[in-house]
Design a protein that fits this description.
310 residues, alpha/beta, Rossmann fold, six-stranded parallel β-sheet, five-stranded parallel β-sheet, 12 helices
């Protein structure tokens, strides 16, 4: 079979050669392109004669897939699959697998880092200090004793919840299904409106699908305490961004830490969150750690070996 990685997925040329040699032992060809290009003509050129394709978070739509007649499997080096045309894949018997679990700790740690940054104004204070500023009566807040509402208790939400317990936080949760590990740690599940109304910090960890699109709506944000902070390391469209920016601008929410947006950065300079107060934004980096990338390639290649029966 011909196996094509349409992008480098964080591996070195040496690692790519090692992977190619491993597949070659079983008569399979492995090609890893060394640059990332998202335009459809390039994707079609790289994918058109492949039977297995590796891709991370580059959108792969029907217009590309329809030009790949040999394709049998998409090996997605990512957790979410909302950038893949799953309906087309199902209709044409293209198997889709992901790299679930590779970035659990990385995303959980970033979520907590954003909470601390918003509470302690680290980003803003760094800029002030470089301009000759001082403490100037600055007073931050601690995570200790705060009620944190974890929205979504999959692997990342659960990891975040358990880490936050070590900071002395009171954890409550909402999810579409209940997880035994959460209940074992004495974390109660609440209705979403109650979680939004009573939490000091709300951290989002749900996948993007029809029922979670704008789950955190204008109405949900209106329930929050004015001292509350929202953190989103899930998917941008889980939140109504315009409503979030309005709540921050009007002082109905104390702050936000955002890693994900409606589309991948770069953002337009008029994006509402870029001009909202006490809003820390980073360009979708929760999954991007050396450790996570090393774990990811292992999962991705194992997915293919399993598919090939090796």
């Amino acid at each position: 079979m011909k196996i094509v990685s349409v992008e480098p997925i964080g591996i070195s040329e040496e690692k790519a050669r090692e992977i190619a040699e491993g597949f070659a032992q079983y008569g399979h060809e492995f090609v890893c392109y060394r640059d990332r290009k998202e335009d459809e003509p390039t994707l079609i050129e790289r994918m058109h004669d492949a039977e297995i394709v590796i891709v991370s978070n580059i959108p792969v739509r029907a217009s590309v897939l329809s030009q790949c007649p040999k394709l049998k499997m998409l090996d997605v080096a990512f957790t979410g699959l909302d950038h893949i045309d799953l309906a087309y894949c199902a209709e044409h018997s293209i198997k889709v697998v992901n790299a679930s679990g590779y970035a659990t700790e990385g995303v959980a740690e970033l979520a907590i880092g954003l909470m601390i940054d918003v509470y302690r104004h680290i980003t803003a204070l760094d800029a002030d200090t470089r301009k000759g500023g001082t403490r100037n009566n600055y007073l931050g807040r601690e995570l200790r004793g705060k009620r944190v509402g974890v929205v979504g208790t999959g692997a990342i939400g659960t990891c975040t919840a358990l880490l936050l317990q070590h900071f002395g936080c009171e954890i409550v949760a909402w999810s579409r299904s209940r997880k035994a590990e959460i209940l074992d740690h004495k974390i109660p599940y609440l209705p979403l409106d109650e979680l939004m109304r009573t939490s000091d910090i709300i951290t989002l960890h749900v996948p993007l699908m029809a029922e979670t699109n704008h789950l955190i709506s204008k109405e949900m944000l209106a329930l929050c305490k004015p001292t509350a902070v929202l953190v989103n390391t899930a998917r941008g469209n889980v939140v109504d961004m315009d409503a979030l920016a309005q709540a921050l601008n009007e002082g109905r929410l104390a702050g936000a830490g955002i890693d994900v947006f409606e589309k991948e950065p770069p953002l337009a300079q008029d994006h509402p969150l870029l001009h909202a107060p006490n809003c820390v934004v980073v360009p979708h980096v929760g999954y991007a750690t050396r450790e996570a990338f090393d774990d990811r390639i292992g999962i991705v290649i194992r997915n293919i070996y399993n598919e090939l029966g090796l």
